[in-house]
Amino acid sequence: MCTSVRSQENDTCKSLFGIIRMMFKDFLVCVIIQLHAIFDFSVDLLFGFYYNGRAKKIPSIKNDLLLMSASELAEKIRIKKVSSVMVVTAFIERAKEVNSVINAVVEDRYIDALEEAKEVDMVIQKCENIDVIKEKKPFLGVPFTTKESIEAKGMLHTMGLLSRRDFHSQEDATVMNFVKNAGGILIAKTNIPELNLWTESRNNLYGQTCNPYNTTRNVGGSSGGEGAIIAACGAAVSIGSDIGGSTRMPAFFNGVFGHKPTEGLTPLKGVGLRQTDYPNSMAESGPICKKAEDLVPFLKVLVGEKVSLLKLDTAVDLKYLKIFYQECSGDLRASKVNSEMKTALLKAVQHFQEITGSATKIKIPGSQYSYRLWRFWMSQENFDFKSSITNGKFRANAITEISKLLTGHSELTLAAIIKLIDEDLLPKENAEWALNVTVNMKKYLMDKLENNGVLFYPSSPFPASYHYTAYLRPFNFGYWCLFNVLRFPVCQVPLGLDKNGLPVGVQVVAAPFNDHLCLAVARELEKTFGGWVPPV
């Protein structure tokens, strides 16, 4: 009997100890979150003092053509309501007008674009069957832009590197060729970070791109120039690329739409430094646009013949969708999701809860490791950063570049040097752990979403922050890169502006090959909450 009593006492003690340990752990978590919040507040306060009064306004929009979707412009050109020359001229003039403020365009082909527009108008004048044009060349005569890292024949392809300052592409990237064949007219290329690998679009060759909503703020990376020029109405539509949020992050910071398709759908030849298509990559090209109606037709163009793998023309009855949402990643190293971002997410959830009758809050197991998992999977990509950062001249070394930086002789940005430090000096992620966590995450989310579910996920802890503050909170990047790790389709949807006039939004995720669900939800959110808001 004494033994039984002692056993019960031991069990009680263990149970009590377990409760105390859990309470202490929860207390520590709360302390870390609050300390991080204080740190973020201090960063914003100090940078706010520095940037106070330095913001510049972009000129107001005077031509209504600039406000239209690429699809609407294409239709007006086809039925001869406007000429391609009129449309291309309007966007060229706007790009010139805003670029002195935001520094998004790094190389233009305005003269050639206008000549191509004249040729389009002659073709349309002679064509008697508009339906054939719509089917074969859905964006005939519409001006578009792309990031500097996507190859366009005859144009610079420096990747933001001083060592490649004179490099010109000999041919188009496959996705570039697709858009040109669809009738699009390339007018310019835009700014990126070095080798596309940072969350701000700044390099030593072209300088820094500024946010059109507030020029003291970040535009994101690596398609930052694209997000800025689309939001400012300097182009009708854009080709972005996304290996860790590079389409969605700039779309979010600049208040426009951006979609990362299901894995393996868009060809990667000519995107970045890829000279062939890679069958196994986290990277995808995708559309960046002001209006949700452009997402499906432009995605069809970028996907090419693989479009048959998707159901982009399938009607979606929204009331039968299963709705899930997650309010934060759970990564203690990331900033806390602020109240306005949480409000934006929850108003989207509430709207769909009213449509469908329910919405389930979830926590993806392992989402707190988003950045670490992406870091591992980047090491599995067919890409040699240390060689590429020198344009193949030699393999860069962290210690050497730190020394050069301190003596003022480095040709690299601090972001590139941080990447070298990560490559050379920090421990690698455990492969078995990363594989297991990734598999479990995919299974969990596949079981939830199936073929009729969508997940609402925060775009970021907060809207576009001041330039350079990304160095002080790099783990916020995890909110985007998680879905590259999982390789699920995800659409960035704008949901208006916050109290400071900066864009807010939400990510909409579906199971692989269910991109049409993301895009249907994007259209509904735009219809309900207004979508893109002009930055003037």
Secondary structure tally, helices: 17
Helix fraction bin: 40-55%
Number of strands: 13
Please list the strands of the largest sheet in the order they lie side by side.
1-3-2-6-8-7-12-13-11-9-10
Structural class by SSE content: alpha/beta
Residue windows where pLDDT falls under 50 for at least 5 positions: none
Could you describe the largest sheet, including whether it forms a barrel? 11 strands, mixed
Q: Write down the overall geometry.
A: globular
- Tell me, rounded to a whole number, the average pLDDT: 95
Give the DSSP E fraction (strand runs of 2 or more residues): 5-15%
As a whole number of angstroms, the C-alpha radius of gyration is: 24 Å
Ends apart, CA distance between termini: 81 Å
SSE string, helices as H and strands as E: HHHEHHEHEEEHEHEEHEHEHHHHHEHEEH
